[in-house]
Amino acid sequence: QITLKESGPTLVKPTQTLTLTCTFSGFSLSTSGVGVGWIRQPPGKALEWLALIYWDDDKRYSPSLKSRLTITKDTSKNQVVLTMTNMDPVDTATYYCAHHDVVKYYFDYWGQGTLVTVSS
Amino acid sequence: QSVLTQPPSVSGAPGQRVTISCTGSSSNIGAGYDVHWYQQLPGTAPKLLIYGNSNRPSGVPDRFSGSKSGTSASLAITGLQAEDEADYYCQSYDSSLSGSGVVFGGGTKLTVL
Questions:
Q1: Cα(B105)–Cα(B1) distance, rounded to whole angstroms?
Q2: For a tag on chain A, would you pick the N or C end, based on fewer CB atoms within 10 A?
Q3: Nearest CA of chain A to the CA of B36: how many Å?
C-alpha cells in the first residue's frame, strides 16, 4: 500500500524560504522507474506542477519556477524535500506530493496535501 | 493560463452523459504524449481517473472513459451520478523551446443538476 504525506510550515513570511517534506511508504525511491513529484493548488485554482525527482537522482523543474526550486531525496528515510525560495503571497496554496512513474508519466498516488499561507 | 485548455464548467442531469475536452498543441498532446485525467472531490486530493488516454485504474467505474485525437483529448462520463460532482483535470507532458515537463489543464467543474 503506497502512502505519501506532506509536512512543513503552515505559515511563512514573504521573502522567506519554504521547506516541505514528503514522507512516503510502500515503495522505494531506489527502484528503477520510480519518481516523486510536487504539485500545488492555490485556493480555488488549478493544479500546477512544480518538480520531479527520480530514482537515479534525475531532477525536473517547472520552467517558470525553476530558479526558485530545489528538490532532493533521502532514500534511507523515504523522504523527498522541496525548497522554494523568495516566497510571495501568490505562492499561497495547498502543496501535494505524489508518486510518479517515469514510463507512464502520471501521478497515481497522492498525499493529502498541506496548505501553506504566505503572509506577513 | 494553463497549457492545456479545458472548459471551466459542464453540467448534466443524473443519468445523462457529459464530456470534458482538453485541448493542447503540437508540443504536448499533438506530439504524441499521453493524456491522463484526475478527479478531485471537494476538499480532497486529486485521484487518478484515466491514464494513458483511455485506461482506467482498478476500481474506477466503466462509466468513465477517455479518448485522444490529434491535439485534443476527452473525458466522457455516462450515467451521471450525484457523487460525480467534482473538479476534473487533464494532464500531459510538454516539450518546447521554453522548457519541458508536466502540464495540467485549468480544470473543469462538473455540476450534477
A1: 9
A2: N
A3: 7
Give the A:B interface size as CB pairs under 8 Å: 66
Q: Is A24 helix (H, G, I), strand (E, B) or coil?
A: strand
**Residue B104: which of A49, A52, A64 has the nearest Cβ?**
A49
Residues of A in contact with B56 (CB under 8 A): none
In chain A, what's the furthest Cα-to-Cα distance? 43
Residue A70's Cβ-count burial label (10 Å; 0-12, 13-18, 19+) is middle
- Nearest C-alpha in A relative to B51: A106
Amino acid at B33: Y
Q: From residue B2, how far is each of A45, A93, B73 by CA, in Å?
A: 11, 17, 15
Q: Do residues A46 and B104 make contact, with C-beta atoms less than 8 angstroms apart?
A: yes
pLDDT digits (tens, 9 = 90+) for A21-80: 999 999 999 999 999 999 999 999 999 999 999 999 999 999 999 999 999 999 999 999
